[in-house]
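Weekly structure sync - notes
Attendees: PM, LS, DV (DV joined late)
Agenda: review two folding runs queued last week.

Item 1: First target. Sequence and structure tokens pasted below for the record.
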Amino acid sequence: MEREIIVKKRDAVATRAAILAAARQRFLRESYGSVGLRDIAGDAKVDVALISRYFGGKEGLFREVVADEEKPKIFFEPKSIDELPGFLAQLVVDDADEDLEKRMEMFIIMLRSASSPQAGAIIREFVHRDVLAPLTELIGGEQGELRANMLLAILMGVGVLRSIMMVDGFADEEDEEAVIAECAERFRSLFAAALTC
């Protein structure tokens, strides 16, 4: 009897993962409004009713897709405003290819679906809770929210240049470490300047 329960749990975990993977690929290629639950279920090779069982429907599934499970609290890491420019600069230059690719895929998913009232509300909630709120709290002061928004705009712009437009400038094969260190210092200065505006 116990063995059957374990097998069912394993199947449930695998099924849930297959649905999430299929949904991520669909939302990466199509907007929230264009994606149907039957399409996702077909891609995952599961019954469409399982999406409602595991995620409560399309909104719950989209919420799971945009949630950052690996680094959900990354913007809570800097402990003082003095650390913030260096932290953000290192985030830009140390971004491993896989991390950068995942973040840019998430950016594309959000961009494609931001005009949907349902998806847009979910996206705003996540961006506010996981990025803007911790940055605003750390920055503090009367213009904290504005400055947090400016920092996010810079981060997103750099990410788009690096991943989508393939403009990097960090790869000098002869002296890669020196180029990365110089870029980190320039980004640190840029983020520090954004905090003083």
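Item 2: Second target, run right after the first with the same settings.
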Amino acid sequence: MSAIDKPQINAKIVYFGKLIRSIIAEEFNAHIEYLDDQKSFRYYFDNQSLLSIPDIILIEVDDNPNCFEQVRYIKENPFFQGLIIVLLGVKENKDWRREALDLKVNDYYTYPFPLEDFCERLNFLVKFKLIKPKLMELAQQTEQVYQVPVSKRIFDVIVSGLALLFLFPLFLVVALIIRLESKGKVIYKSKRVGAGYKIFDFYKFRSMRQDADQMLSSMSDLNQYASEGDSKTGKTAFVKFKNDPRITKFGAFLRKTSIDELPQLMNVFIGDMSLVGNRPLPLYEAEQLTTNEWSTRFLGPAGLTGLWQISKRGQKDMSERERKELDNYYANNYSVLLDLKIILKTIPALIQKEKV
């Protein structure tokens, strides 16, 4: 059967098991990631972010003594609420079906079954039970809480517009060198969370290899904040790597001089950010800061530079808690005078001593 003729499943799928894996792989046109054992199962789900959560997990019951333990693990984690769970078997077992029913899995199939009907069922479940990211809900709840002061917005538009015009020749030179050094887009675009949990496209000159995002999960031991993770989950709110192996040679220069950050002037000009504020965070970092203690940082403007940049940026003794406290302080105390002080102190802070 050609790829065109195969049933299409419009979802990201994770598959656990081996008995009928080859059949599923051959018969369906879908993005499927395969897990082989309990260790890989736990590792996979312990390292998911809002951007990487799958839509469906297919779990084989036969030869899998951990099957229902796996279902409970998923069900008990609020982060995976809405994940579609479908169990697959090769022999009928009433006890297994009863336990699956008690656990309220989305469906249970015993092979052989009509593959087209199975595909249609999965697409139906995806359509009505897609995961709703927490940050999207928070954005709707808080979007009216923060408004950029008119004076601050006027200042941002004038300064960022003039800067973009003045720096345009530099942008062209940097873009040319990036393209000559390595394949990939000149501008790196990622989703970031700013004021009021607003999610927007964040721009930087690409300073890393093209496959940098795929390398992220294997680099947790290099995280500068790894020792400060949550005692229960082990996760940290911030991710910053020492001697990041993903950075290109020219990318290291761009980062050392902070030239890689200049495209964010466009974010400032269109209103996603301000010149001064708290740094907008990647979704996997922002999802760790939704408690009352630390969510205050999102009630202030997202900025190109801020207190963190002029305080201890690039220093080893800048702890995760210090960054959070600086962000909260700025959100509660920002003013035109404070913004001017931060801008004046930003230039000497641009040259970093550490490769982070």
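Discussion on item 2: Residues 310 and 345 are 6 Å apart (CA to CA).
Action: LS to circulate a short write-up before next sync.
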